[in-house]
Amino acid sequence: MPSLPPAVAEIRLAVRVVLADLTDGATVIVALSGGADSLALAEATVFEARSRGMHVLSATIDHGLQDGSDEVAASVAVKAEGLGIRSFVARVDVSSAEGGLEAAARDARYAALRGIAASERADAVLLGHTLDDQAETVLLGLARGSGAASLQGMAPRREDEDGTVWLRPMLGVRRATTEAFCAASDLEPWHDPHNSEHRFARVRVRENVLPVLESELGPGIAEALARTAEQLREDAEAFDEMVHETIEDIVEHAEAGISVSVAALAANPAALRNRIIRLVAHSEFGASLSRTQTIEVARLVTDWSGQGPIDLPGCAAYRDGARIVFSAR
Fold it and tell me: pLDDT tens-digit profile of 214-259?
């Protein structure tokens, strides 16, 4: 009996481990672009789901950003059906979206996937991000100065407030392994032209920055960046638990919003104090505070000299005696 190619064995095992957390008979959706990563994920998911009685669907999102994108999406759906997967194709419009094209396309893609998952009552959506994608994400976060939250990279499992579960089985798998999987499985991946366009920051990181780091610092840079993301994510989870435990004792509802004890904030280290401030603003008003805004609010605790309200996205913060009040603007 011929031995299983190493790439096939590695990716099937990665998928098997993730599916183990789902019940037999569950419905999963594979986000399928047609590239090597998602194609390998789809085939491995079909193989591993068979013995568990799971239902595998695929969703291909057509962003309409290239000529003939609808034809590409249709051909990807045909490939999915060739693997025995019932497929969905959704067209999204990002032409009028604000912000960068990459971010707009990503937001539209996730919204479409979320809608398909809800309509099919899927237990999870599987995404084909690899270790290389994780390393690129960490470098991009580092370049933007986004802090530890960004450097955590992508989580292997995430559940949204609406109940959508996102799973990334291949965050420990190199991109070259997915390509080897496709070659060994006679799968012909689609090569997205956007993956070679240097106007996109992620492409520049992939083709310019990471190779230079590997050349100058030695091999293993991508793995080291992925390990860093994992360690920071563990630290962040521990911090989040501490924040939620602390916040129950120091937060009160105010007439115009919510208030926090000055003494309690002052008694906590700066890292925890800043997390509490950001969490209060986000949970009550949906505001995402920058580091500068967070530090300005913290100065109401640590360096208060009578300064007035601080304007924040969707709210304002001010000191009222022994409490910091966040109120709607």
Answer: 999 988 999 999 998 898 888 888 878 878 878 878 888 877 789 9
Residue 182 and residue 116 in contact, taking contact as beta carbons nearer than 8 Å: no
Q: Give span(s): CATH 3.30.465.60, the chain.
A: 254-328
pLDDT digits (tens, 9 = 90+) for 158-212: 999 899 999 999 999 999 999 999 999 999 998 887 788 888 888 999 999 999 9
Per-residue DSSP letter, 199:
T
CATH 3.40.50.620: which residues of the chain?
6-225
> Could you tell me if 88 and 80 are in contact, meaning their C-beta atoms sit under 8 angstroms apart?
no
CATH architecture of 254-328: 2-Layer Sandwich (3.30)
- Which one, of 186, 183, 177, lies nearest residue 7 by Cα? 177
Q: Which of 79, 67, 108, 76 is nearest to 91 (CA)?
A: 108
The pair of structure tokens assigned to 50 is 């068979």
Residue 126, both tokens = 């599987």
> What CATH number should be reported for the domain whose range is 6-225?
3.40.50.620
